[in-house]
Amino acid sequence: MHILENSYFVLQLPGLKPKFYRQIKGGAMGSAFTQVLADIYVRKWENEFVQQQQQQGELYLRFRDDVFLTTRLPQEQIKFFLSEINKKDPNLTITWEGGKTVDYLDVTTTIEIPNFRTKVFRKLAAQPYVLPFHSSHPIHIKRNIPYAAALRATRICSHSEDLRSELEKIRITLLLNKYPPRFIDKHIGRFFQDATEQRTSDLLLGERHQAYRERTLEPEWKKKEKRKIEFGKDILLHFTYTPSLAHFGSRFHQIWQEIFEDTPLDDIPVMYANRVSDSLRHLSVKKRPSKEAIKLLP
């Protein structure tokens, strides 16, 4: 409670004195604390309604403050029901849209009895932007972008024709961000290989689409057992990434082996990793005010 009642943030523009603002309602956007508190608050508020949905055999899904549900009630009853819920708490106001097709988060869902048809949803204002190929990021990050996009599309698209269309959109987006065609084909092909054991889309977009899609939806699909870091023993070395360090990782281990062979350090695991260069946002926005500014707090 003390945190909620004493929530301040500081705005300090270049050359000007800091200004202090106290938040008297709600919480800071993007704050991990605010997200947890909002989940607790909504969870308490929704309990009775969730039980009703379960008793009626209906769906109720929530992510933060976005809810997806199914109902057999006519629209007039839905409006009345939600207006009654809105009276319960002045801090929560529900707005809704419904129909046989709805957009929820990044999925467009359509009722096709006896099931749903799902495909990727994009807002009209969405730009075809991903991390540019020529950005100063390690190559493994760029390799994962086509792979992850194809995996996401496969998991969301319930029908092969929608998946085919989405894969074309992914390819166009990557080309617009300067990804080489061979690079795109190689890493989307890598996903096809993992999903169907064939590097082309023929099986995934064929008659067995649903079976291969369900395989990718399994929680343990392609999860690799990672060796845990022993912080008391392992040596971790991080270097800020630049293009000149693109192939330095393997060379680093060779140098380490040459220098420390037959020494006590020879048996100690060394982990080389790159940290990404600071972005403009990271350089210009500070989450913590300076010590001098905090001292001025009234």
Outline the fold blueprint.
Blueprint lengths: L1 H4 L2 E4 L7 E4 L9 H24 L4 E4 L2 E4 L5 H12 L14 E4 L2 E6 L2 E6 L18 H18 L3 H17 L4 H16 L12 H9 L17 E6 L7 H13 L9 E6 L4 H5 L6 H5 L3
Parallel strand pairs: 8-9
Antiparallel strand pairs: 1-2, 3-4, 5-6, 6-7
What report would you give on this structure?
- The chain has 298 residues and is an alpha+beta fold.
- It folds into 3 domains: 65 residues, no CATH class; 124 residues; 72 residues, no CATH class.
- It has 10 helices and 9 strands.
- A 3-stranded antiparallel β-sheet has the order 5-6-7.
- Strand 5 and strand 6 form a beta hairpin.
- 8% of the residues are buried.
- The mean pLDDT is 84.
- This is Reverse transcriptase domain-containing protein.
Choose one word for the global shape. Answer: globular
Number of helices: 10
Q: Give the rounded overall mean pLDDT.
A: 84
Separation of the first and last Cα atoms: 20 Å
* Class by SSE composition: alpha+beta
Following the backbone from N to C, one meets helices and strands in this order, namely: HEEHEEHEEEHHHHEHEHH
Strand order of the largest sheet: 5-6-7
How many structural domains in the coordinates?
Answer: 3
Helix content: 40-55%
Biggest β-sheet strands, sense, barrel: 3 strands, antiparallel
Number of strands: 9
Q: Runs with pLDDT <50, length 5+?
A: none
Which strand-content bin applies to the residues?
5-15%
Rg, alpha carbons: 26 Å
InterPro entries: HTH_animal, RT_dom
Protein name: Reverse transcriptase domain-containing protein
Organism: Rotaria socialis
Pfam family, one: HTH_animal
